Amino acid sequence: MKGKISWIAAGIICLLVILVAGGSFYTVPLNQYAAVRQFGRIVRTESEPGLKIKLPFIQNVQMVSRSLKLYDVPLSDVITRDKKSMIADNYVLWRVVDPTKYIRTLEASDNRAEERIEAAVYNAQKNVISSMSQDEIIDARGEKLTQLLTDEANSDIGDYGIEVVVAEIKSLDLPDDNKEAVYTRMISERQNIAASYKAQGESEAQKIRNETDKNVIVMKADAQKQAEILEAEGEAEYMSILQEAYNTEEKADFYNFTRSLDALKKSLPGKENTVILDKDSELAKLLYGEASAEK
Description:
There is one protein chain. By secondary structure, this protein is of the alpha+beta class. It has four domains: 2-65, no CATH class; 69-173, Tetrahydropterin Synthase, Chain A (2-Layer Sandwich), CATH 3.30.479; 177-245; 246-294, no CATH class. The protein has helices at residues 2-24, 99-106, 110-130, 134-139, 142-157, 176-245, 249-266, 282-294; strands at 25-28, 32-38, 41-46, 50-53, 59-65, 69-79, 85-96, 162-173. A hairpin with a 5-residue loop joins strand 6 and strand 7 (85-96).
């Protein structure tokens, strides 16, 4: 009987050891926080993955995800500095950075966290957009707006143990009744810019044409001057040759005779070999004079 009782006692003791051991260990998974609570109060948090120890029966563990979460923020209307209405469509990437605050303030509820994020992003968006004109927003780089929204949103949610990693504007559009007017104005502005560039191009082209015309005139004047110099030199050479040809009566008569023969030859085209001259013509007189001289 005593042996049976001892076996039962040993079994109970083993069962208690198993229960105590089972309640003393817990595992922290990857991308999870573990909040150890004692009588409902958080006594510590664990972020490193692995096997951990707690007090059995007295302490329990609450797991909180530390992974990145995506929240698609509903569309919202915003007013620019110049009182123009625009429709913003945003999304947010967020995560838990302080599990203790997250549990105490939001009861570890992602829905409540996203409600706070939505309000923070809307306020940040209102502050950023209202400080810029519509033209500045249209011309602004996306990275600039993203950084401004992210910083503004984080300043509002730091007490909740969460962090906005990125507050991104997917689209920032105009209300339908304003689109046509804005597009028309944008087209007009682009046309004015194009006309300005065209006028500048025409002005530059005219300057180039004027400079080219001036250079052409100068070059033509120089060429004309050189031509006149060469012509004058040719005339001088010609006169020198004539002077040399006529410096004696015999040379003059011979030169006139050869010129007359050249003129006569040119006046007999083809096989024509007869010429009729007036007896009073200079050529006839010259020919007669030469004939009589030969006689």
